[in-house]
Amino acid sequence: MNKEIFINLSKSAIYKLWKPKLSTKRKHHFAYIFHTESLHNPKHFEMMLQFLQDYTQLTGKRALATLMSGAHPRIIAGMAEQKTSELLLVDRMQQIGRFADLGYHGHYAFVPEKFSDVTQQIKGVVFDLKKIEAQIEVELTWFKRNEISIGPYYSAGWWFQSPWLYPVLAKKGFQLDASISYSPWLRQINSYAWFKKNNIKSGEPVLIDGSILNIQNILGCHNTKYPDDFIRNANALWDHSEDVYNFMHSHDFDLHPEYTLNTLSSLKKQGAKFLDVKELLLLKEKAKSIDLPTP
Amino acid sequence: MKSATFSKTFYFRGNAIQIASGTNSTNNSLKKIEMAHASLNTISGFFAKNEKMIDPNSTIFAFEEAPTSKQFKFECMGNMVWGDLSRGAMFKILTLRGALIHKPHFISYLLRKLLLQHGIIRIEATLPQASPFLSLFSTIKKADAIQLEVPHNLSTYPLHFYL
């Protein structure tokens, strides 16, 4: 038997007997974040635009779309492949900006032109802050030149995040970060170990170094038709009974609108609240505050 | 030396299957790896704080040697290993030359996949004594000279660990 059919059959049988539910002990707050990396592709753009409207209709809130700029070698290569001009890309970003708040999504490499070489990609514990800073500067300048208003919201590419990146982000004016996750599939050992050391719970908002608010990403939300999968995996990560604030993410190229909306409406039925980024920023006052680690 | 290792290969394969079924010892070793890597973080944080330039080739922190085009490469779940594959009539042996590890808790999954997908029966690696990956290897062969630092060239460190 096909493996996928077997998994689907067994899941539907199990979930009929045992349905995972959000705990009633705590309040669940979610915000939706897009890691937007494929706007040069018209199919992905149209799908995302439609989804953003459906999301607002369902939840009454705006999603956050973090963008990669047209100055990034990966986007330049994608534009050449899809024969998309820079003007068209800018136009698409502005259209996205009508339905979502915009932020910045940073993918870094030691040599940016060799971004597709795995050994050059900055993903883990070894990185070069000067190169990262230079790349952020180039990309933010591109956004300014093309009059795309990027808000102070940041999400990391390849889930790279480090305590030492926060001062750089603060210098660039960022206020909200969505790069840290406790999920084993997403977490980055550098920042995860630092959070664990400071006894940060899963889903707890954190004010880092008095400047940037971190809201953790819980899971991706796109690839299964069972909302129970999302709830089951998320429940395993929330190992306490306090209120949780989490982002859930998807990319524009791997979005499955039907499954995602299904999951979102299921969460809404179970009493989850949805927030937009401005509401999340208000958490700054009550968030737990931590300092950078001493080397 | 060769004949001695060959006679042990079936025994090693038994170990590989044990890992695939997720025994307690594997789970414990995963915890150890994660803990050990948590302590490595402060090292890289130290480098960054002091603004020391890091050479692109030094992205490999477990054991260092940049991959060449002829070498066997395998990537899985954000981790990548490369090395020399020696093919026999009945078996393949992979000698690891380097690794890029971003998600240390998935490294045993990578090795397991490597064993199952590519029909490799044994993986060899030369590691420093302090390496957090030691717990992944079932048979450890010690050399007289023990070097605690991360090696720059594998061939200069005579420690051999067999899976």
Molecular structure report:
The complex is a heterodimer of chains A (295) and B (163). Chain A has helices at residues 3-17, 42-59, 73-82, 86-99, 129-145, 165-171, 189-197, 227-237, 257-269, 277-281, and strands at 28-36, 63-67, 100-106, 153-156, 176-177, 206-208, 212-214, 217-220, 244-251, 273-274, 288-290. With 295 residues, chain A is of the alpha/beta class. In chain A, strands 1, 2, 3, 4, 5, 6, 7, 8, 9, 10 and 11 form an eleven-stranded mixed β-sheet that branches. The model of chain A has no long low-confidence stretch (mean pLDDT 90). Chain B is α+β, with helices and mostly antiparallel strands and 163 residues long. Chain B has helices at residues 2-7, 9-20, 24-49, 107-118; strands spanning 72-76, 79-87, 92-100, 120-125, 139-141, 160-162. A six-stranded mixed β-sheet of chain B has the order 1-2-3-4-6-5. Chains A and B meet through helix 7 of A and helix 3 of B.
